[in-house]
Design goal:
By secondary structure, the chain is α/β, with parallel strands linked by helices. It is built from eleven helices and 14 strands. The chain has helices spanning 13-26, 57-66, 80-85, 87-106, 142-161, 187-198, 216-228, 249-259, 272-277, 286-292, 300-314, and strands at residues 4-8, 31-35, 49-51, 69-74, 112-114, 117-118, 164-166, 168-170, 172-174, 200-203, 211-215, 240-241, 245-247, 264-267. α1 (13-26) links the parallel β1 and β2 (31-35). The structure holds 2-amino-3-ketobutyric acid. 2-amino-3-ketobutyric acid (AKB) binds next to loops.
């Protein structure tokens, strides 16, 4: 039986698009989608789909054996804002599910793991601009602490057991096919929905709170490029910095106003402002560029154009 690819968290913001892209590339049956819940998007059932709680070690092992899984894309996590409300749940989910996958790779039940880290591994003491690959890392959120611990585990399993694990520190991801949930960077998706539906938006981050961001199409391409790169090119086994676009709420608002001059934006920062204030404003990803030739395609205005036109069709607005 040919090896298959397994997606954990296939109904989430990244999982949805990654599943669709990999199935287009390799065929529906080659990609097994799993999630703790049934998919809202019927297309995710065009290939094998299993209900799976990624923190259930026995369930994960059974699915890997049933489908002869080679590569696992592990996309299950509780994000920064929700993690602050449920710290122990976030820690348990984020750590257990990763360790179960690493153990399966150590036992050679699976061959390779992609696991996402985040800009949340950085904290208030990290240099804010052009944040280097290696720098001070003192995250102040439970999510960030779990991602930093996860990075250390990934590198440990690679060094000790030769587990082929690959990872990216995702910036905030902006997409139209599926929505994010529970993150601090989610405002940059909501703003496009509200612009089209209501012509105005109140940002939960302040006007000049800049963060590293990326359009989903670039993030999916980076994820697949890194996971499929020859092993000797993957020199960082904790997690790679990845840069796309850096902007603040006022600047994304101005980008929308170029196409929708009547769009109104105001600001009412809430608890997520403090989380965002602890993160970098921009990222140095020269290691990803040098090791596996990473280059983003989208800038802010091309992303705005793509988001508004795709969402208009999706929301059936004229
Ligand atoms: C979040 O806001 O929590 C995530 C992230 C930056 O990892 N989008």
């Amino acid at each position: 039986m040919k090896k298959t690819t397994l997606i954990l968290g296939a109904c989430g913001q990244i999982g949805t698009e990654l599943t669709l892209t990999l199935r287009e590339k390799y065929g529906n049956d080659a990609v097994v989608a799993t999630d703790i819940k049934e998919p809202a998007l019927a297309e995710l059932k065009n290939g094998p789909f299993e209900i799976l709680d990624a923190s259930d070690a026995a369930g994960l092992r059974a699915v890997c054996e049933k489908y002869n899984v080679g590569t696992v894309y592990h996309l299950v996590a509780m994000l920064s804002a929700t993690g602050e409300k449920f710290p122990m749940k976030a820690w348990d989910l984020n750590m257990q599910s990763l360790l179960h996958a690493l153990e399966l790779a150590k036992e050679n039940i699976i061959d390779k793991i992609f696991w996402p880290s985040s800009i949340a591994v950085f904290g208030p003491t990290t240099p804010k601009r052009n944040t280097p690959q290696q720098t001070i890392m003192e995250p102040s959120t439970v999510y960030g602490i779990s991602k930093l611990a996860g990075e250390r585990w990934c590198e440990y399993y690679y060094n000790k057991y030769g587990v082929d694990v690959r990872s990216i520190r995702y910036p905030g991801l902006i997409s139209w096919k599926s929505q994010p949930g529970g993150g601090t960077t989610d405002y940059a998706v909501e703003i496009y929905y509200k612009a089209l539906e209501e012509g105005k938006y109140t940002s939960f981050l302040s006007e000049h709170r800049a963060l590293p961001m990326m359009y989903m199409e670039d993030a999916i391409r980076a994820t697949i490029e890194l996971t499929e790169a020859p092993s000797d090119q993957v020199k960082v086994r904790s997690s790679y910095n990845l840069a796309g676009i850096s902007f603040d709420p006022a600047t994304i608002g101005a980008s929308i106003q170029k196409l929708m001059p009547e769009f109104e934006l105001d600001f009412a920062p809430d608890f997520r402002e403090e989380i965002a204030a602890s993160w970098p404003e921009s990222i140095d990803d020269s290691a990803a560029q040098a090791d596996w030739n990473w280059t983003p395609k989208y800038d802010l205005d091309s992303m705005t154009e793509a988001m508004l036109s795709n969402l208009k069709t999706k929301l059936q607005l004229s």
